[in-house]
Amino acid sequence: MNIVEFFAQSAGKWSSLRTSHHLAFKQQEGGKSELQIELLDKTDPAVIQLCALYEIDPETALCGARVTWDGTMEWDEEKHEGSTVLVPIADPEKPNQGSLLREMGYAEKAPVAGRYEMGSNDELVLITEYETMYSKERLWFESPNVRLRHSILKRFGGFSMASFCSEVRMGGAKPQESQTDAAASSSS
Amino acid sequence: MNIVEFFAQSAGKWSSLRTSHHLAFKQQEGGKSELQIELLDKTDPAVIQLCALYEIDPETALCGARVTWDGTMEWDEEKHEGSTVLVPIADPEKPNQGSLLREMGYAEKAPVAGRYEMGSNDELVLITEYETMYSKERLWFESPNVRLRHSILKRFGGFSMASFCSEVRMGGAKPQESQTDAAASSSS
Prior knowledge:
The first copy, chain A, is mostly beta strands.
């Protein structure tokens, strides 16, 4: 699976459970959200605009994805809503890795480019480095309709948070659904 | 890292946060526990006894580990305490994989042997199959003092639960502690 196939497999609506483990406080926080992921062509205006922001030739973009989320976390009563556009730009010599442009980082509200690497095990690893922060996220499909994500965050060089999300495709499975998804997808 | 090195690195006391995502109910449950892991030599009486239970020559055991846990989960008020012994038996031709004997399965209270595989990325994968249940667990170290675990459980062929544990070494770090563990280990 390459990153475009990974994004294509991610397209759709997902019901997501998220947990954050705050390692220093030994506390955890749960949350729920709905995710919508839309695959964008490299000629989509949103992709071209994001490339322009980073001063990158949009011809080098592999594709794009628009991710929209709407959820709640336990520790506050506020709605967490948002949307971002992601654009992978492969390294010229290594097609399985490259830069991942995004409108907005998950941890900071400014544009930030991360790195991606698509592993031989079909796992997508995203690494984002901020000034005082480092985040590594691993995403993989247990099946076409169950996507899992794990991330770890370092602040000032020390591990501060580990997160885990389980995502089940909503509203009907894709045609390639295998029998092993029966229990999970029947609940969505 | 081979499985004996993985067990040796796991030895000690750990403070663990656990979350279970019940996929069909879209509900999650948190828990906390303390884990104690003791590395056992292949000549330890507990290792020999477990091999005898499975009718396996204890000479083929690589080592053993005694895991003791004491914790609580949110949905009940009961203490979850227990202890088990694990013994890896490598496949003759493939030393990085084999059987994992255990006194007690995590999901069923009867002796059950699973399979292990130590990946080239230093990730330990444990697969246990019961009559109506399949569990796959992945364990890895983010650092010598931060161990993460993820598991997924299928019942009757459908995904039913995804779990995630973050474990921080308690009571002083091992000598090989790197600077990057400062934040997490200072809290233990």
